[in-house]
Design brief:
This protein has nine helices and eight strands. Helices cover 40% and strands 17% of the residues. It is an alpha/beta fold and 263 residues long. The protein binds zinc ion.
Length: 263
């Protein structure tokens, strides 16, 4: 069985002393590919360095909405330059966040827009973080859609079915993380049951939010993705192996700079 963790902050300081073991445990658990997702210029560079050294690790480069206030103006140009590297397979994470409200909303929108435009120029897919601002996200996606097709994923999706449907209509993929496995997440599981099979992705969003039965354990790590995969397979009524095969196939289709052959 091959699993693809499409969202992990592998460069995070929480992994500093244990990164080698974390990657080994992931591979032992069948996680053959991982996408290391940047949140600042420095972390994007760290993700790329990791991707260049580690088989099966790929990088996404971008500036997170919660960090765009700290970005220097030259940082964005550096992200644009990084995006042409062959181990960079996606842009982000980007999006909007009204919950933490770390950066002025107009500035978050400015950076989200830059990622969307760069995606349309390069063909690289984008990764969307959404917290308490579904309608604003959809409005910006719809505006971008008028300039051309969209390639991207709603990461760690926690919205309702109508929101998922609008994102699907815009051509996006939907990715589920450990929250899917929590006891209180019945509504989210019913959404996950109804996403078309060819648009589904899975992720850990490690080091955050470990899945049940490891909830509360820090840090979360890619090896634990099997719990989310198992939960998703169960709610959709398909064997785990089928869910793993389908989601890995979907990820390779979306992050198409990754070679199809095993790393
Ligand atoms: Zn993330």
């Amino acid at each position: 069985m091959e699993l693809f963790d499409t969202h992990a902050h592998l460069e995070d300081d929480q992994f500093a002393a244990i990164r080698e073991q974390v990657l080994q445990r992931a591979r032992a658990a069948g996680v053959t590919r991982m996408l290391a997702v940047g949140t600042t210029l420095a972390s994007s560079r760290a993700c790329l360095e990791l991707a260049e050294r580690q088989a099966g690790v790929y990088a996404s480069v971008g500036i997170h909405p919660n960090h765009c206030q700290q970005a220097a103006e030259g940082d964005w140009q550096a992200i644009v330059e990084l995006s042409s590297q062959s181990r960079v397979v996606a842009l982000g994470e980007t999006g909007l966040d009204r919950y933490w409200d770390y950066a002025p909303f107009a500035l978050q929108q400015d950076y989200f827009e830059r990622h969307l435009r760069l995606s349309q120029e390069t063909g690289l897919p984008f990764i969307v973080h959404m917290r308490d601002c579904g309608p604003e996200i959809v409005a910006m996606l719809e505006a971008a859609r008028r300039h051309g097709p969209l390639r991207g994923v709603m990461h760690s999706f926690t919205g309702d079915l109508p929101l998922a449907q609008r994102c699907l209509d815009l051509g996006l993929h939907i990715s589920f993380a450990g929250m899917l496995t929590f006891k209180k997440s019945d509504e989210l599981r019913s959404v996950a049951a109804r996403i078309p099979a060819d648009r589904l992705l899975i992720e850990t969003d490690s080091p955050y939010l470990s899945p049940h039965p490891h909830r509360g354990q820090r840090p979360n790590e890619p090896a634990l993705i099997e719990h989310t995969a198992r939960c998703l397979a169960q709610v959709r009524g398909v064997p785990l192996e089928e869910l793993a095969r389908q989601t890995t196939h979907n990820a390779l289709g979306l992050f198409s700079r990754i070679p199809m052959s095993l790393p």
